[in-house]
Design a protein that fits this description.
Structural class: mainly alpha
Number of strands: 0
Distance between the termini: 38 Å
Radius of gyration: 22 Å
Strand content: under 5%
Shape: globular
Largest sheet: none
């Protein structure tokens, strides 16, 4: 009877752990292909994050476990308070409720991912899920480009620039997944990701990828020989694509050149408008979604055909909408992740853990550089990478604590 009483709780805990692992990997892996899910049902892409949050809370309550302490939770909680305050101050805005509802799930899911990745879910699994989801998105975009004659790759994302954001963020993660016998698979995935990002013709994506690769080289994670081989493979693929679809690519380049010239002017207008909003409302901003509401007035109807756009700069848009306190906390999420990942790199020796931490750093760098030209605060990579950086540092810290405790007992 006692044995049965012990076995049943063990089975229940195993089931809970398995469920958390599946939902966490699904949350991260399905984010790049959310467009395909919403095409089936408008709310389908939100199912995995919602279930993860619900199961995480239920498990922690049942086990009476509090999340392991980390500054990230305090920053997220304070950011939620500021978000609620600015949303209340601008409750009458036409976009306030919609964008507040978009913000809050990211804060909760980030906390959930940071906690489960420090306990139940191996970080490598989540990196693999993110890379696999982005590779599927890249493959879908390339297929649509070739089979359906699209001018720029977009795949599951409505905007090619958003697709580039997901793809370049996933490229560095492949370095953390390297194992003997997987080289061919990872090489193929890398080619799909880079080719897909290239086919978006996103300049921000190109800069983000360059920054990420440079970081991997600087930290000694990416050998020059492997980079050269990947460059040759991508160049060969590009030449093959030009040989078979030269006119289509030439047309896409001409369209992108025309669009790029227009984008320079419109983005300057939007950045100036965001800066004026921040100057006029430095404490609580103009509220979630407020940039879209106030852009026409602040720009004096500079874009007649675009009255409610995004700022195309994550930092200016967050600052304009949430004010300086909100922006400081938003930057605090990134700073917490950066500090945690660097602590992990310095605490562990050469090996898989260090490679994972550097890969997360490089991916986060790609996200931050790309977001200079895009409004990407409403996409998961930024938040999931922050969660994984903190979880990796928590695992190392807890491991060191266990080792110290074991040494004390031995003495």
């Amino acid at each position: 009877m006692t044995l049965v009483a012990v076995v049943r709780p063990a089975r229940r805990e195993n089931l809970e752990t398995t469920l958390l692992r599946v939902l966490a990997c699904a949350t991260v892996g399905l984010a790049p292909v959310e467009g395909y899910l919403t095409a089936v049902q408008s709310q389908l892409g939100k199912v995995a994050p919602a279930l993860l949050t619900a199961v995480w809370l239920a498990v922690r309550i049942r086990r009476r476990q509090a999340p392991r302490p980390t500054p990230l939770y305090a920053v997220l909680a304070l950011l939620a308070v500021v978000l609620a305050a600015t949303a209340s101050a601008h409750a009458a805005g036409p976009f306030t409720a919609e964008y507040t509802v978009r913000w809050l799930p990211f804060l909760v899911v980030t906390a959930a991912l940071a906690d489960v990745a420090s306990r139940e879910v191996p970080i490598r699994w989540l990196l693999l899920a993110a890379a696999a989801g982005a590779t599927a998105a890249g493959a879908g975009a390339l297929y649509a480009l070739v089979a359906e004659g699209e001018a720029r790759a977009s795949g599951p994302q409505p905007d090619p620039n958003d697709l580039a954001y997901f793809l370049v963020a996933a490229v560095p993660l492949l370095a953390a997944l390297h194992r003997r016998g997987r080289a061919a698979v990872l090489t193929a995935a890398g080619i799909v990701l880079v080719a897909g990002a290239t086919a978006t013709f996103s300049r921000g994506g190109a800069l983000g990828l360059t920054a990420a690769v440079g970081w991997l080289l600087l930290r000694g994670v990416l050998p020059w020989r492997l980079l050269a081989a990947a460059a040759v493979a991508v160049a060969g693929l590009g030449l093959g694509a030009w040989a078979f679809a030269g006119p289509q690519l030439d047309r896409a380049l001409q369209e992108k050149t025309f669009i790029a010239a227009s984008n320079v002017d419109t983005r300057e207008l939007r950045w100036q408008a965001a800066a004026r909003m921040l100057t006029a409302h430095p404490v609580l901003g103009v509220g979630p979604g407020g940039f879209r509401e106030h852009y026409a007035a602040e720009s004096h109807n500079a874009e007649v055909d675009e009255q409610t756009p995004v700022a195309h700069d994550m930092y200016l848009e967050v600052a304009a909408e949430l004010g300086l306190p909100g922006f400081a906390l938003f930057a605090g999420v990134v700073a917490t992740a950066a500090v945690a990942s660097e602590r992990t790199v310095r605490r562990v020796g050469p090996g898989a853990r260090r490679t994972e931490a550097v890969a997360i750093q490089a991916s986060l760098l790609a996200v931050l550089v790309t977001s200079t030209f895009l409004s990407e605060q409403y996409y998961l990579p930024l938040w999931s990478l922050a969660a994984l950086a903190v979880a990796a540092e928590t695992r190392v810290r807890e491991g060191e604590g266990s080792a110290d405790a074991g040494a004390a007992r031995d003495q």
